[in-house]
Amino acid sequence: MNILDDTAGIPEAVKAGRVHVAVYGAGRVGATIAAAWLRAGAKVVLVDIDRKRVDTVAQGRALFPDEPFVDESFRAGFQARRLAVSTSPSQAAAVADVNIVAVPVGLNDEGADLSSVKSAFEEIAARMQKGSISILETSVPPGTCRDLVLPILQEGSGLKVEGDFAFAYSPERIFEGRSLKDLEDNYPKVVAGEGPKSLRAVSALYSCVAKKGVLGMSSLEAAEMEKLFEGVYRDVNIALANELALVCEKLGVDFWEVQKASNSQPFSHLHRPGLGVGGACIPVYPVFVAKSARKRGSKAAMTEEARKFNSSMPAKVARSALSLFKGEPKEVAVLGLAFRGDVADDRLSPTYELLSELKKMKCKVKVHDPYVKKEEALGFPVSQQLSAVLEGCDLVIVATDHGEYRELDYDRLKSWTHTEPIVYDARGVLERTRFPKGRLFVLGDGQRPS
Does the model's pTM come out above 0.85? Predict the structure, then answer.
């Protein structure tokens, strides 16, 4: 189908299975995007250079079991002969009407490591169809689409954007554990095109998927910044909550009580304090913004300071927890390796920094996580069996807000530790009434050891 010139026919063609969508990157974002297009009726090829991921999908095994309906969509897609998997980006591009790139971008000394984006679009450009559209969904620094991706597509294909093919940016906006619902139901899809034809094409396409509609932006750069600003907003406001929580500890005031009262006023939105900020998104986007500003002779001072403050929280938590002992704890149980509750994702988790600090302090540590399946972290043993991790520990640090931890009480902890443990809750998840006075300390609660 000629996506560029037949915009009006896109919705009907998608439903009829006449649109071929290639999704590059079988991570959580790419898998979600592929599932959404399958559910909309398109034919999909999911591409990843990681053979293990491709084989997992091909064999009908769960790629992301914590994401409702994603793996089920893959199985249904195979059964309907509308899903294929591949390790060859160029082969996928040769038949695709729509190329969607959702590959990972990490950090390096320059700011963003865009090598995976560059590689994906080079492969697409080599065999891109005339009349097709290419869309980048990965979160990237402003200017990436125009300065890096577009030259690759035009020079590599010999085609011209807006005349021969369409190009758009549409940042992913998903939350782990509900990614497909976010894409299909919860938010409008932000889109931007390199010209009016591209914008019309990407808008028509995503109107087939996003029930909340599409939100067209005036430029590629505006759409790039929109996604980054979402993360910066959260990072800065978490830093504010963390700072105020530490102030409350010094003043002997309970931050959680004050937060609840403050947020009863509609203009106050104090976030929850915690161990720090992790994941592949929120700790990364402020760096993209700050580096981009510096390259253009400007500064993002508040953004940078917030990032530094949140990065300092694991060390502050380690010192605060250990200060509860007059001597030294014999053994420390750290509960939670994932960066967020009820997910198996430990990318950039602040727990790793906490473990690093505890190692510097010569602590003996065991780590528990019900989702992250690892045997060790920074040399400390990791287990999915909570009772085994707690045995013999006299300090327990709650590092992640897993739902399992919310049900803990002091009697149960004692039955596993066989000690009189002190508990430091760095996430504010434990029910205080279930613990005797002087045995539970919550970040920002203003208590002092007796």
Answer: yes
